[in-house]
Amino acid sequence: MNLNEFVKEYGLLLDEEGRYYLINDSDTREEPYCSIKSLSEIFDLSIGTLNSRISNLTPHLGKNQKGRKINFFNLNDVRTSCSDLLDENLLITNKDGWIVRDKQRYNTVRVIAKELDLSESAINKRIKNLKFLKGKKGGRLIILYGLKQVRRVCADLLDKELLIAGKDGWAVKDNRKYATLHIIAKKINLSRRAVERRIKSLATFIGKNRNGTISVFYSLEQVKRACADLLNKSLLIGDVNGWAVKESRRYAPIKVIANGLGLSYDVIKLRSESLTPLKGKGRGNCIRNFYNLEQVKKVCADLLDEKLLIINRDGYAIKNGQKYARIPVIAKKLKLSTRILKPLIKNLKPLAGKNEHGNIYDLYNFEKVMKTCADHFGKDFLIADKNGWAIKNGQRYAPIAIIARKLSLSENALLSRRKSLKPLKGRSNNGNFVNFYSFEKAKRACADLLDKHLLTIGKNGWAKKDGQSFATIAAIQKKLLSISQSAIRSRIKGLKPINGKRRGQIISLFKLEHVKRACADILSEKN
With 90 as the cut, is the pLDDT of residue 364 above it? Predict the structure, then answer.
């Protein structure tokens, strides 16, 4: 049923604001709620259109006649959300989707594109500034454009001189063949990238593909001339594995040779800079530089030496039962930083080794490195855990920074007391050598700073004790303003300060009333 039939059947009333309602048996006003399916019939709108318009409305859960739980929406709220679709002046299309107005035919871009044998994307680029009409078809809002207007803005695309491609993608004009770059590249068995580099100066032609899309066409004859060097029959042609044979010699691109020799691409590329490659077609018909395999082997002879150590996936190589590895691998194993390890083993002679990717590295004898670094693995040498702490004889040790953070003191405060602390050598959790200090001795050295009765100074330099204010000279001077710090200091020499703590450092504090009394002569003069 439509809206009028729905209103009549349920006896709905209409208020001044245009909202439908009814009065129930309790003389209370109620507004109607309907399911999506019912709303679709009442307003003659598709369910998809309704869902897109009511996403911001809050539904109420209810049951249908079969007892299933479904969402119900306020009829008036839905009517407001879809007001543009319910406009009586909204154009209604015929069965074919066309509307005639002022002797002009209107339809959607999709239908017009089919009518003109053009692609939708080609038309959309041209109609951005055209006026359009709104209509409704199958309960959906649609945008309509005038056929004549679309013809006018797409006149160049409808030109009879425009190249029209057949089902195979080719167009023929004056006995010459034209096609898009993709089709021509496929035809002459070259990669698109190789062709593209050579045809930048060639003339282009506008053509239309079989699906109506407007594309750039090139002359097959002109492209062949531009790519003559790539179409030379003497050009090497790589097989499915990338290899080519010429005069009983094997050639291939660097990447293929690298895989064959078990070396890295970068290593071979660097060694082959002095070699002269030949042009050839590799996989995907791309033009590549092909190198002679024997020449590459000569420039990489040292890397192909059978005596070269082979590094396994764990980063180690074995020779005569001994382990060899790169500096980063050994440093990680010994929990030392590479910055520390390198100068320690500068007198050791490395051996060359190759990993699974063919990269060449210097490898060091692991046992010799351990002997060279023995002093850093002694019994008295501390090694920090992941939190930076080390244990020795039941006592905790840590660097100054970690102890300061633990005690809520500044590093400077601890450093000023370190003369009474004897450091031990050790390694931090990132492998660097640092000084470790006893946590208990550090606490004793800073006992005055850890006194619970010590006043804590705020950011403004003030502290409270027994309801009285204490502050630093700078804070008090800022409070009094008219008196300089030097004038205050000269008058409070007889006053005894109390200690306070700020950012882990001891600071002298003075009672504000005592300072005011000592500076009374200056304050009275200023007033």
Answer: yes
pLDDT tens per residue across span 367-378? 898 888 776 665
Burial (0-12, 13-18, 19+ Cβ within 10 Å), 252: buried
DSSP-derived secondary structure for 426-482? EE-TTS-EEEEEEHHHHHHHTGGGG-TTSEEP-TTSEEEETTEEEE-HHHHHHHH-S
Name the one residue in this structure whose structure tokens are 């017009």.
112
pLDDT tens readout for residues 229-266 = 777 777 888 888 889 888 889 999 999 998 888 777 88
pLDDT digits (tens, 9 = 90+) for 143-176: 889 999 998 888 877 777 778 888 888 988 888 8
Cα separation, 75 vs 59, whole angstroms: 11
Mean pLDDT throughout 67-91? Answer: 85
| Residue 334, C-beta contacts closer than 8 angstroms, at least 6 positions apart | 341, 369, 370, 373, 377, 431
Cα separation, 510 vs 497, whole angstroms: 5
* Nearest-angstrom CA–CA distance, 363 and 325: 5
Q: What is the mean pLDDT of residues 278-294?
A: 83
Q: Which of 373, 371, 443 is nearest to 407 (CA)?
A: 443
Q: pTM of the full predicted structure? A: 0.35
Cβ distance 429 to 384 under 8 Å? yes
Copy the structure tokens of residue 402.
């970690």
Count of alpha carbons within 13 angstroms of residue 95, beta-carbon side: 0
Describe the crossing of helices 36-43 and 3-10 by its angle, rounded to 10 degrees: 120
- Reported residue count of the chain is 527
- Spatial neighbors of 463 by CB under 8 A, at least 6 apart, are 455, 456, 457, 469, 470, 471, 500, 509
Sequence-ordered alpha helix ranges (H) in 335-425: 338-344, 366-372, 400-407, 411-415
What's the whole-number average pLDDT of the chain?
A: 84
The pLDDT, as a whole number, for residue 164 is: 80
The two structure tokens encoding residue 416: 């000023």
Q: Are 162 and 208 in contact (CB under 8 A)?
A: yes
The whole-angstrom distance between residue 493's C-alpha and the CA centroid of its chain comes to 63
* E-strand stretches of 64-184: 69-74, 91-92, 99-101, 104-107, 133-137, 140-146, 163-164, 171-173, 176-179
Q: Is the pLDDT of residue 503 over 90?
A: no
The residue among 56, 152, 138, 53 whose CA lies nearest residue 97 is 138
Q: Which of 156, 162, 219 is nearest to 188 (CA)?
A: 219
What Å distances lie between residue 85 and 145, 205, 441, CA to CA? Answer: 18, 44, 83
